[in-house]
């Protein structure tokens, strides 16, 4: 794993218990600025719980979590509010407000957290829609009128509203057909590569892992059981890892520039 920049996510010795159930047992993890990291693991390994702990939505039993330099469980309300303006979150189902049109959904973070002049709001909303691959006309549609792929992009546009430094995604391609899912992968790769966004996503999508994830972190037995590139993780002799990756026998797509260069030079 190559260092790219300062650590923007620091999870140190996190323990998470729900009654007698231990989900995390001394889990530590760092994500550096500019990385695109995929978090995977079996059912019950605590992927989504860890995401909520990083975001400050669930307090771990022990250990510490720092996001963009802020200790999420000892910071003041003002410090937390300032940090929350610096990251975006896209939930698994999009979580769009059904009573607002797409433009209204994207505008909500701007209205809540900035003093954007009203005459500039439509222009900023359209810019965020464009970043998510949507036309300005989509802004007038209601969430119920959107396809699954368009809902995901609308939710992404809202997550990008405040120009975040870090983007979190929970199962971003779930429920999408393969063509739409790959187009969404390409969009995430663009945001990471060309705009410099740090990306941490929970995913089960093997195509996403093998095409755009530069680093894969595997959770299991309460801790990190593998951490590295797809090739490095696939070489780990762990039963779950071997079973997971053995379900895919085809050659991974050469979306990743490093993999493409290898393929072109073969």
Which oligomerization state do the chains in this entry correspond to?
single chain
Structural class determined from secondary elements: alpha/beta
Mean pLDDT across every amino acid position: 90
Tell me the number of strands. Answer: 10
Strand composition percent: 15-25%
Order of helices and strands: EEEHEEHEHHHEHEHEEHHH
Q: What's the N-to-C terminus distance?
A: 24 Å
Q: In brief, what are we looking at here?
A:
This protein has helices at about 45-55, 75-85, 100-115, 120-130, 150-160, 180-195, 205-210, 230-235, 240-245, 255-265, and strands at about 5-20, 20-30, 35-40, 60-65, 70, 85-90, 165-170, 200, 215-220, 225-230.
Description:
- The protein is 37% helix and 24% strand.
- The chain has helices at 47-55, 77-84, 102-113, 121-131, 148-159, 178-195, 206-211, 230-234, 239-246, 257-265, and strands spanning 7-18, 21-32, 36-41, 62-67, 70-71, 87-90, 166-170, 198-202, 215-220, 223-228.
- By secondary structure, the protein is an alpha/beta fold.
- Strands 6-7-8-3-9-10 form a six-stranded mixed sheet. Strands 2-1-4-5 form a four-stranded antiparallel sheet, covered by helices on one side.
């Amino acid at each position: 794993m190559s260092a790219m920049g300062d650590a923007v996510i620091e999870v140190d010795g996190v323990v998470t218990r729900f009654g007698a159930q231990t989900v995390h047992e001394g889990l530590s993890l760092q994500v550096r600025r500019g990385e695109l990291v995929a978090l995977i693991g079996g059912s019950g390994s605590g992927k989504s719980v860890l995401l909520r702990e990083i975001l400050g939505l669930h307090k771990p039993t022990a250990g510490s979590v720092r996001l963009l330099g802020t200790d999420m469980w000892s910071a003041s309300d003002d410090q937390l509010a300032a940090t929350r303006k610096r990251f975006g979150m896209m939930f698994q189902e999009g979580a769009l407000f059904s009573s607002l049109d797409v433009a209204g959904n994207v505008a909500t973070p701007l209205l809540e957290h900035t003093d954007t002049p009203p005459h500039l709001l439509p222009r900023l909303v359209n810019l965020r829609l464009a970043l998510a691959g949507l036309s300005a006309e989509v802004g007038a549609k209601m969430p119920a009128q959107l396809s699954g792929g368009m809902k995901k992009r609308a939710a992404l546009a809202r997550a990008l509203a405040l120009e975040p430094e870090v983007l979190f995604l929970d199962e971003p391609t779930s429920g999408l057909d393969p063509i739409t899912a790959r187009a969404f992968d390409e969009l995430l790769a663009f945001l990471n590569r060309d705009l410099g966004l740090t990306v941490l996503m929970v995913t089960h999508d093997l195509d996403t892992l093998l095409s755009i994830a530069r680093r894969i972190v595997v959770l299991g037995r309460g801790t990190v059981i593998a951490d590295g590139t797809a090739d490095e993780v696939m070489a780990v002799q762990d039963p779950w890892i071997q079973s997971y990756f053995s379900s895919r026998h085809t050659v991974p797509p050469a979306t990743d520039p490093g993999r493409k260069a290898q393929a072109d030079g073969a």
